[in-house]
Amino acid sequence: MSAKQQVVSILTLPTVVTIIVPSILLVLSNMSFLGLWFQNPLSIVLISIGILTSAIGFTLLAFTIRLFAIRGHGTLAPWAPPSELVVDGIYGHVRNPMITGVLLILLGESLLFES
């Protein structure tokens, strides 16, 4: 597994799902970001929870990608999968922590943009 394979898999998979697609959806919905956060009195709470949830999801995703690289000797991409089964760390407690991380990022984004 090379560093290039790791970067390509990260840019191809989680970046598309957590950044590019949500950005396109927000642009297509014509949301006004500057006024959005101050229309609702609970906005500061939602923004805070959204940032925290996204940060937890990002951390979980980063740890799982690192485990795949170090313990599994592979990437998260199906075209360069780990050559060894990863059962250490969070994989000892959660069946699919990578998807859990992505879902937490998306949940945090939806709270952040009240969408």
What does this structure look like?
This protein is mainly α. The chain has one domain (3-112). The protein contains five helices and no strands. Helix 4 runs antiparallel to helix 5. It is elongated. The model has no long low-confidence stretch (mean pLDDT 84).
Radius of gyration: 16 Å
Structural class: mainly alpha
Strand content: under 5%
- Assembly classification: single chain
Helix percent reads 55-70%
Q: How many domain modules?
A: 1
The overall strand count is: 0
- Which residues form runs of ≥5 with pLDDT under 50? none
Distance linking N and C termini = 38 Å
Task: Characterize the overall form.
Answer: elongated
What do the pLDDT scores average to? 84
Major sheet attributes: none
Number of helices: 5
Order of helices and strands: HHHHH
Summarize the structure.
The chain has 115 residues and is an all-alpha fold. It is 63% helix and 0% strand.
Topology overview:
Layout: H1 3-12, H2 14-28, H3 33-36, H4 43-70, H5 97-112
Helix pairs in contact: 2-5, 4-5
Keywords:
5 helices; single chain; elongated; 115 residues; mainly alpha
